[in-house]
From TrEMBL:
<keyword id="KW-0489">Methyltransferase</keyword>
<dbReference type="InterPro" id="IPR007269">
    <property type="entry name" value="ICMT_MeTrfase"/>
</dbReference>
<keyword id="KW-0808">Transferase</keyword>
<feature type="transmembrane region" description="Helical">
    <location>
        <begin position="137"/>
        <end position="170"/>
    </location>
</feature>
<dbReference type="GO" id="GO:0016020">
    <property type="term" value="C:membrane"/>
</dbReference>
<feature type="transmembrane region" description="Helical">
    <location>
        <begin position="6"/>
        <end position="31"/>
    </location>
</feature>
<keyword id="KW-0472">Membrane</keyword>
<dbReference type="Pfam" id="PF04140">
    <property type="entry name" value="ICMT"/>
</dbReference>
<keyword id="KW-1133">Transmembrane helix</keyword>
<protein>
    <submittedName>
        <fullName>Isoprenylcysteine carboxylmethyltransferase family protein</fullName>
    </submittedName>
</protein>
<feature type="transmembrane region" description="Helical">
    <location>
        <begin position="89"/>
        <end position="116"/>
    </location>
</feature>
<dbReference type="GO" id="GO:0004671">
    <property type="term" value="F:protein C-terminal S-isoprenylcysteine carboxyl O-methyltransferase activity"/>
</dbReference>
<dbReference type="InterPro" id="IPR052527">
    <property type="entry name" value="Metal_cation-efflux_comp"/>
</dbReference>
<keyword id="KW-0812">Transmembrane</keyword>
<dbReference type="GO" id="GO:0032259">
    <property type="term" value="P:methylation"/>
</dbReference>
<feature type="transmembrane region" description="Helical">
    <location>
        <begin position="52"/>
        <end position="69"/>
    </location>
</feature>
């Protein structure tokens, strides 16, 4: 492993750690805030129970995948491995920027964040900060970290991880958009028309 590859892998691993820690601290913070409101806590617990089967299935799939593929080190995944220093550095840069976006969005969202899609008691629509560029900046950041890891780690098993993450994120976007539209009505529909979902690309009005 070259020096550049070692640095890139270290940066990517750090980004993944920051992402996990942010998610865990966010869940803890939300739990503390929710402790002061029984209805908010009940709402969060209902969402958590509803998503529990999917979470268990996801963990089971990861374990089975690791067992079947040898943790990504068997011959099949090695055929998909391609390391390029330029792509590696670009991947690391993308992961760092995406991690910063993810943390920024998490801070702006504050107590409105939850690990499952739900409308909380006294829910407020966030449209400032990163939410003025994309409607789902946390998902944008997560996707950027995954794609950056795929480039930085040299594809391999990360191709499959990216292929699984992308449709899941698109599904979550649809679910949350429908939920927010039902809660905020025309306010969210106008926001949805004005701001793209995941990629901060200007909309073209003909």
């Amino acid at each position: 492993m070259s020096g550049v590859e070692t640095v890139v892998h270290g940066v990517l691993s750090g980004c993944i750690v920051v992402f996990v820690v942010t998610w865990l601290l966010g869940a803890l913070y939300f739990g503390v805030v929710a402790h002061g409101s029984r209805e908010r806590a009940r709402s969060w617990l209902r969402g958590l129970r509803a998503s529990l089967p999917a979470r268990i299935a996801l963990v089971a799939c990861i374990v089975v995948l690791q067992l079947l593929t040898g943790g990504g080190h068997n011959a099949f995944w090695q055929h998909l491995h391609y390391w390029n220093p330029v792509l590696g550095v670009l991947g690391a840069a993308l992961a760092v920027a995406s991690t910063a976006l993810l943390v920024w969005a998490r801070l702006v969202l504050g107590a409105m964040w939850a690990s499952v899609p739900l409308v909380q008691e006294g829910h407020e629509l966030r449209t400032s900060g990163p939410y003025s560029y994309v409607r789902h900046p946390i998902y944008t950041g997560f996707l950027g970290v995954v794609v950056g890891a795929m480039l930085g780690f040299g594809f391999g098993m990360w191709v499959l991880i990216t292929a699984v993450v992308l449709p899941w994120l698109l599904h979550r976007v649809r679910v949350e958009d429908d939920m927010m539209a039902a809660e905020f009505g025309d306010q969210y529909l106008a926001y949805r028309l004005r701001v793209p979902a995941l990629l901060p690309l200007r909309r073209i009005h003909l």
